[in-house]
Design brief:
- The chain has about 325 residues and is an alpha/beta fold.
- The protein has a single domain, classed as Aldolase class I (TIM Barrel), CATH 3.20.20.70.
- It has 10 helices and 12 strands.
- It has a 12-stranded mixed beta sheet with strand order 7-8-9-6-5-4-3-2-1-10-11-12.
- Helix 1 packs across helix 9, helix 2 runs parallel beside helix 3 and helix 3 runs parallel beside helix 5.
- The two termini are about 25 Å apart.
- Bound molecules: S-adenosylmethionine.
- The site of S-adenosylmethionine has 20 residues, from strand 3 and helix 10.
- S-adenosylmethionine binds next to strand 3 and helix 10.
Length: about 325
């Protein structure tokens, strides 16, 4: 097993099925143009073979399907069914939820137990201002249908000072009422936010979030798994919420994540654009592919930073 001097190893794999997205969220895409798929994306079976190889080489036992928007690609059904058969401890999905009604049946049939839905506001107009697309009611309906099917849902919200700060508490109310764990994601300095003014304008820290929440709820900090990205809080008798505090309390020192992009590159760190192509290894016999992959993974692990420093590559390319 490959382990670094902080005891970090790869345990969680995030696979970006496609770089394409049906939204163009203000904090992800500067020019408002919806995102296209990457050139030379691997197909569903190639991505599946890459996952199998990475599992063999690293002992990865958790996998999250992400993107881009994973539900927009025809690869989704086959890839989901494939990875569900790999005997991983945990398979989950991150989606903006817009296509949940269309994909509901395949999701339920696959047996997947956990889904994160990204949702930044409960106001229909504000929703379209931030996502520059989509329909709020469709997403809310999709979430209800997942809950009815017994699937555990978490909601991801990126609080933005100029766009949805007034939604911070209402979003928590909505989630607590439904037994959903809300995850506030501190805005990350990625893509156009790395050097522009937008980050300073919109960033809301964990401390400010907690101040707002404390005006309505009492809470205490609660346990989170060792390699969790979130700091978690319990509201007695009501539920739990979390904050992914990239800036306020970075989780880099216990990060176990490895990312596979839709065009076959692996990334050891979200805060580094260093990447290695592994798309060719899936065509090699395993006695050749595995040693080469081990070498690549040693390099990817060395790319892990001690704190999030920002990255010029946008999240959708690396896989959020
Ligand atoms: N399309 C899917 C979705 O919306 O969940 C998956 C990909 S998206 C890149 C994954 C998550 O990254 C979303 O929750 C999104 O809000 C978040 N995200 C994108 N850019 C971000 C940024 N600069 N800072 C914080 N979160 C960001």
């Amino acid at each position: 097993m490959i382990v670094d001097r902080l005891g970090r190893r790869f345990r969680n794999l995030r696979v970006s099925l496609t770089a394409a997205c049906n939204y163009a969220c203000t904090y992800c895409v500067p020019d408002g143009k919806r995102l296209l798929k990457a050139r030379n994306e691997l197909d569903a079976s190639e991505l599946y073979e890459a996952v199998k190889l990475l599992k063999q080489a690293t002992g990865i036992d958790k996998l999250r399907i992400t993107g881009g928007e994973p539900l927009v690609t025809p690869k989704f059904d086959d890839f989901l069914m494939g990875v569900m058969s790999l005997g991983l401890q945990d398979v989950s999905l991150t989606t903006n939820g817009q296509l949940l009604p269309r994909k509901h049946d395949v999701i339920v049939q696959s047996g997947i137990r956990r889904i994160n839905v990204s949702l930044d506001t409960l106001d229909p107009q504000n929703f379209r201002t931030i996502a520059r697309s989509g329909d709020l009611a469709t997403v809310l309906g999709g979430i209800d249908a997942l809950l009815d099917a017994g699937i555990r849902v978490k909601v991801n919200m990126v609080p933005l000072r100029s766009q949805n700060a007034d939604d911070i508490v209402p979003m928590l109310d909505y989630c607590l009422e439904r037994g959903i764990e809300l995850r506030y994601i501190e805005l990350m300095r990625m893509g156009h936010l790395l050097n522009g003014q937008g980050f300073q304008t919109d960033f809301i820290s964990m401390e400010s979030l907690l101040d707002r929440i404390s005006e309505k709820y009492e809470f205490t900090r609660t346990d989170a798994p060792y390699d969790s990205t979130a700091v978690r809080f319990q509201i007695p008798g009501k539920g739990v919420f979390g904050i992914i505090a990239n800036e306020s309390e970075p989780f880099c020192r216990s990060c176990t994540r490895l990312r596979l992009s839709s065009d076959g590159y692996i990334y050891g760190c979200l805060s580094s654009s260093r990447r290695q192509f592994i798309g060719d290894l899936i065509h090699e016999p395993s006695h050749i592919a595995l040693p080469r992959l081990q070498n690549i993974l040693v390099g990817a692990l060395a790319d892990k930073k001690l704190a999030f420093q920002g990255e010029v590559t946008v999240m959708k390319l690396i896989g959020g």
